[in-house]
TrEMBL record:
Its main location: cytoplasm. Residues 277-331 form the PUA domain. It comes from Psychromonas arctica. Pathway: Amino-acid biosynthesis; L-proline biosynthesis; L-glutamate 5-semialdehyde from L-glutamate: step 1/2. Belongs to the glutamate 5-kinase family. Its EC number is 2.7.2.11. It is found in: Cytoplasm. One of its GO terms (molecular function) is glutamate 5-kinase activity. ATP binds at K12, S167, D168, T209, G210, G211, M212, Q213, T214, K215. This is Glutamate 5-kinase. Residues 7-233 form the Aspartate/glutamate/uridylate kinase domain. It catalyses: L-glutamate + ATP = L-glutamyl 5-phosphate + ADP. Substrate binds at S52, D135, N147. The lineage of its organism: Bacteria, Pseudomonadati, Pseudomonadota, Gammaproteobacteria, Alteromonadales. Pfam families: AA_kinase, PUA.
Length: 370
């Protein structure tokens, strides 16, 4: 494959490609995607498929429900998942394996490592991993919410070289191409900043949930881990033909020259904060180098409920997001500390508590609270 040095890629395919009319799975667009997967494997490139579509594939079993309830959506996902896997299987003469995940599988480090091990074992034995969010059991607290971000998390966990995200347009445009005839596609993005997010529009597909905004979020997650990331038009066979030739058919996002370390990336882009610790504006130490200076004396407020070892957000009293870190103490204990810091006996106890967060698991953010 010219210009590519891929050993392993993650390909994300959305609901609109799987079941474009919500009448079960269709081979209309899947055929050329399957051909691309076969060509990659023939070239020695390992492929992990992140496939949406279980709800859209199962919708036809439940009649013409315009606004299905959450239990019905979960039932649609349960029924549609089999159809979706069967649709992919019929294109291949090698086995595939279903992996259903929630954000909880990424949040818990032991489960995260288990997911990695499973993916590596499947690839080692020539089996195609097909990943989807587990819509049947997931809750608001546990769901990723869109498969764009899920694909980036999977790509990082799997140590992939590239992430390819299929869209319903050719790539990222400087303005909405559905409403502006003079919209220009951005072929190359070297840095994802606010100007890039400003270009991202909402979802236009009637069956998908991820718009361009989530694709940019996914690209930021992936590129910071060192992955080249593409947004391409998955409805066009030519997009995949160009990729095979080593060309860029859409928008390519350059990976970080110095990718984040694994633990830092997981803390920044995968682990969710279970609560917040608000500290005084006067704390001036760089947190990544001086986390031991962050003690109970700096606490202004403790928000949410969390346990020792959970990820928390540290923000200043003026609203700046300073860092995500592993808490050394529970919210219950920190609330007790902050409520009793004027008592002499308590002060002796506070002195013994030490820093609030682990110095080995901290990710500096320095972002405005929006």
């Amino acid at each position: 494959m010219k210009n590519h040095k891929w050993n392993r890629i993650v390909l994300k395919v959305g609901s609109a490609l799987i079941a474009p009319e919500r009448k079960g799975c269709s081979s209309r667009y899947l055929l050329h995607i399957a051909k691309f997967i076969l060509q990659c494997r023939d070239m020695g490139i390992e492929v992990i498929l992140v496939s949406s579509g279980s709800v859209a594939a199962g919708a036809h079993f439940f009649g013409n429900i315009e606004k299905p309830s959450l239990p019905i959506k979960k039932a649609m996902a349960a029924a549609g998942q089999n159809e979706m896997m069967a649709a992919w299987d019929r294109f291949f003469d090698f086995p595939s394996a279903q992996i259903l995940l929630t954000h909880g599988d990424f949040q818990d480090r032991e489960r995260y490592d288990s997911v990695r091990e499973t993916i590596f074992a499947l690839l080692e034995h020539g089996i195609l991993p097909v990943v989807n969010e587990n819509d049947v059991v997931t809750t608001d607290a546990l769901k990723v919410g869109d498969n764009d971000n899920l694909s980036a998390m999977v790509a990082a966990a799997a140590d992939a070289d590239a992430l390819i995200i299929c869209s319903d347009i050719d790539g990222l445009y400087n303005k909405n191409p559905h409403t502006h005839d003079d919209a220009v596609m951005i072929k190359n993005v070297n840095t994802i900043d606010q100007s890039i997010y400003d270009m991202a529009g909402g979802a236009h597909s009637s069956v998908g949930t991820g718009g361009m905004q989530t694709k940019i979020e996914a690209a930021e997650k992936a590129t910071s881990h060192g992955l080249t990331t593409y947004i391409i038009n998955g409805f066009k066979e030519s997009s995949f033909e160009q990729l095979i030739l080593g060309n860029n058919p859409g928008t390519v996002f350059a990976p970080y020259a110095k990718p984040m370390e694994e633990d830092l990336h997981w803390m920044t882009h995968t682990s969710r904060a279970q609560g917040e610790v608000v500290i005084g504006d006067g704390f001036e130490y760089p947190l990544d180098e001086n986390s031991d200076q962050l003690t109970s004396n700096e606490i202004v407020e403790v928000l949410g409920e969390f346990s020792a070892g959970d990820t928390i957000l540290i923000r200043s009293d003026d609203g700046k997001h300073l860092a995500k870190a592993e808490a050394n103490y529970s919210s219950c204990l920190l609330n007790f500390i902050s409520d009793h810091d004027n008592n002499d006996d308590d002060n002796e106890f506070l002195h013994q508590t030490g820093p609030l967060v682990s110095d080995k698991n901290i990710a500096v953010l320095d972002q405005e609270d929006k």
